[in-house]
What does this fold into?
Amino acid sequence: MFLLIGFLLFLLFGLLVSLLFLKQTHPLLRMGLSYLLGLGLTTIFMTFFLFEKIPINTLSLLLTLFFLDLLLFFWVHKGLFAFVRECQSFISKKNLSIFEKATVGLLLFLCFYAIVVSLYWPVKDWDAITLYDFRGKILSDIQGQERFMNFQLEGHYYGYPLLTSLSHAFVYILGGKNPLFLSGFFYICLILVFYGSLRQLVKRETALGATVILALNFLFINHITTAYTNLPFAVYYAIGTILLYFWMIGKENGCLITAGLLMALSIWTRDYEPFWLGNFVILLIYCFLKKKIFYPLIFLGPILSTKLFWFDFRKKVVDFFVSNYLNKQVLIGLGQQEINVLSSLVSFKILDPTRLFRVIIFLNKAISPLFFPLLIAFVVFLILDIKAILKDERKYIVLIIFANMFILFIGTLALSLTFPDWEKIPGSIERLFMFFPFLIIFCGAITFEKIFLSNKK
Amino acid sequence: MKKIIEKLQLRDFQKKIFLLIFRYSFFLFPFIWSLTFFFSILESFTYSGFIRKHIFFGFQFFLFFMILCGLLIKFGLPIDKKTKREWIDYYKVLGLLNNIFFPLILAATIIASAVEESHYPNYVFSKIHLQPKNLYWVCFVSFYLIILKVRNLEKIGFLFRVIIGKKMVPFLILNYFRKAVLLALIFWILIFNARFASAEIFKNLLIITRHPLATYDEKMRIVWGDFYNYMLFIKRNTPEDATIANPPPIPPWNNEGSGPVFNAFLYPRKFSQSITEDMNEVDLKADYALIAWGFYRCSKNDVGPDDEFCHGWPRIPIEAEWIIYKKENSSEIDRKINDIIYDPNDPINKYAWGLIKIKKK
It folds into this structure.
């Protein structure tokens, strides 16, 4: 019961936050953002409680959410009523073709499947059970929260940021037994935000077709039941990038603020991979060309705050372990690796052609089993429509995709210099790649529409 | 066809190229379809990648080529009557054979997949040397021909409608070609994704329908196997404040020796193990010690078959208050022996999982 109330309260919280920043958007995108922002920002204030030694329990959680909702309700209640009206008209005005009915049916089946399997399976996979969910269980009681903050757990548990663990803790604190359903909802959000954002740029049938292609991706379906950080990261990061793109193509400034928030939440999910740098560089170039000098700061603010906060905490953890144990083992995952990576990147080793070739082969092996047709399609789409892409706004999203691919390549190269068993973990690279299909299919759908339907609008 | 080409105001070499492409796709399709069909069957009876290994181009290459040719002949410019008359018999024969085979292949795929899911991975392959997953491709290739034979394709849906348009619009040939390539790619991605996704969905739904009321322990057993029973066994037979000596985190004790796994199942119990990964070291100050044969395979230098000599832990004699052994595939106690010195060379400890209560001096 408490869990249901808590769930509804954080959904409302997310909805109100999205209404605060985004005045006009597709209702499905807003629904998806309600969950993403609601859950993410709830874990942020849980972190504040944790660090301020305020006990996190049913009462403190529900009361805080209630008062935040109340506060925001007075602020944006007009937007809320408008959203309800939007939803009513969205549901009522449909006249679907056979193709649309088939795709909607398939998508509804996939959503239903996501809920069923995520309610059925417990948290069961290696990383989830040993790290994310274990921390969630520890953080779900007051003694555990104290143990965590007094660094009484092994160093391994301080490696990753806390979004997934605190969301699991949220479920446990409110009386839930199985937090895996959160992953099911992340998958549903993926469908909602993808369709909702794409629909603003293309026709309904194109958006539905593209959403089916994305939703049928094996990795997304597989991650409904794994409860790793990759699916939440992919959703936060990809929709953050799309909102950034929306701002670049002239939509409201709220898109940029929300994009920054979502990027920060993606870092709050996993912070090792600096993909956000790619987006930031493209944004800088865009702002420089358009003479919007101060806008990058809006985007960078939430990202840097999260990054610096977590960096500072991990520094404290490292200092504690070094001064108490002097045990190198516990330093794994506590920042040492990042220092190694940075020092390796400034060395000349990265220019070794043999290593470059090995990295390319490794990336191909890791990515192509599941994404080969998608990558080929991306390249072919680019080649066939390159002139038009360079002329219109699609160039920004294409540049962002390339910037992220470059970061993936450089990151793997750095990993190859610092981690001896780097070639044994293609699965990690494959999971890291999860947000690319979102961006590639998004870009592909717009291109498809321009090629096929330009004369039919 | 030549008249239509002339209307399009293309340069001479462009005309020649596109005429060749359309003409040859009409000739090529029966061959490329037959070849792709044959290769898909061949990979069903061997393994994925068999074709790539032997003739450099993978099965997917032929599949893509087949889809492209199919789209070109279906939606490309009309072929002249003479050519059509010469080749139509091939199409008829192929279509007839395919109509007979398709239901059989579809039934075989469904049955093989169901049998595979209801037993264990590779069960069908071990019995009749057939890969059920690869049969999906055979179905697709066969189904593709059926789809191409449907007359009013535009009624099927949007993808076909957009390429045909309300009338046969005289598109530029280049546009036709470009659209055929894009559609072929989209089909490829969709089929590629759907194949993996459907296997995952099918697997999960089968488990759920088979064990709809499974308990937490039963579900964890499905995933972790007998290792989960072992963790339950330890949990039930040790108090929460116990310290338990466990093997180093190296093969074959990747799970039994892993601190994070230990914590996930046995927290708040503490574990104690050798920092130097010395497999002869046991912390005798601990309250308990695991008896762990090792669930993973291990061999010298990580190559070669599983080596029995690197299994089995602890490797030193330990004076015990009692030793309990776990029943196979259960979390129950198989036998309990009081006041005994644990001997690593005793045959009873071969393939054994259990727990030692270390005697305090």
Q: What stands out?
A: Residues 328-334 of chain A have pLDDT under 50 and may be disordered. Chain A touches chain B through 48 residues (CB under 8 Å). The longest helix of chain A spans residues 353-391.
